[in-house]
């Protein structure tokens, strides 16, 4: 993984064979948004929430990342990454959904916006999902 960082932005390049989630969660972000993401993936697990559970399906790949968006929050005290992706297949067809797992194929180039002054917490809800609970830091609690 290569990265360049300012107080408010990160640009990350993931390398072939890297675990997408492991590498991005190692950044330790608890309040951020993926602004853009391009590249390729393989061994992808996508999911669809049917109102009760995630229905998963596997895409072997390689596939092109056509759209990647998501956010970094805190879940049970740890950095948590929630992503959705649209993937282009070799035959021109497109698949997408909640990204559960992926391996980088060749490269991923990702731009992340850090959200200062905001906390993003995930809390378990009665429907089984971990809902997003954003709050604003009070000026006294901001570094």
What does this entry show, briefly?
With 143 residues, the chain is mainly β. It has one helix and nine strands. A hairpin with a 5-residue loop joins strand 8 and strand 9.
Q: Secondary-structure blueprint of this entry?
A:
Layout: E1 2-5, E2 9-15, H1 20-25, E3 32-49, E4 54-59, E5 63-75, E6 78-88, E7 94-114, E8 118-124, E9 130-136
Parallel strand pairs: 5-8
Antiparallel strand pairs: 1-2, 2-7, 3-4, 3-5, 3-7, 5-6, 6-7, 8-9
Describe this structure in words.
The protein has one helix spanning 20-25, and strands at residues 2-5, 9-15, 32-49, 54-59, 63-75, 78-88, 94-114, 118-124, 130-136. It is 4% helix and 66% strand. The model has no long low-confidence stretch (mean pLDDT 94). Strands 1, 2, 3, 4, 5, 6, 7, 8 and 9 form a nine-stranded mixed sheet that branches. It starts with a strand and ends in a 7-residue tail after the last strand. It is globular.
Keywords summarizing the entry:
mainly beta, nine-stranded mixed beta sheet, 1 helix, 9 strands, 4% helix
Helix content: under 10%
- Give the rounded overall mean pLDDT: 94
- In the predicted model, the low-confidence regions spanning at least 5 consecutive residues are none
What pattern of helices and strands is seen along the backbone?
Answer: EEHEEEEEEE
Q: What is the overall silhouette?
A: globular
Distance between the termini: 28 Å
- Computed over alpha carbons, the radius of gyration is 16 Å
């Amino acid at each position: 993984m290569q990265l360049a960082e300012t107080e408010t932005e990160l640009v990350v390049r993931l390398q072939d064979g890297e675990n997408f989630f492991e590498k991005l969660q190692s950044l330790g972000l608890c309040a951020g948004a993926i602004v853009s993401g391009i590249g390729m993936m393989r061994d992808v697990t996508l999911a669809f929430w049917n109102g009760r559970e995630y229905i998963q399906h596997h895409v072997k790949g390689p596939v092109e990342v056509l759209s990647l968006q998501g956010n970094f929050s805190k879940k049970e005290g740890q950095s948590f990454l929630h992503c959705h992706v649209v993937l282009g297949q070799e035959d021109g067809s497109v698949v997408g959904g909640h990204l559960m797992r992926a391996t980088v194929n060749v490269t991923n180039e990702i731009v992340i916006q850090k959200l200062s002054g905001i906390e993003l917490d995930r809390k378990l809800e009665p429907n089984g999902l971990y809902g997003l609970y954003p709050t604003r830091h009070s000026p006294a609690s901001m570094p």
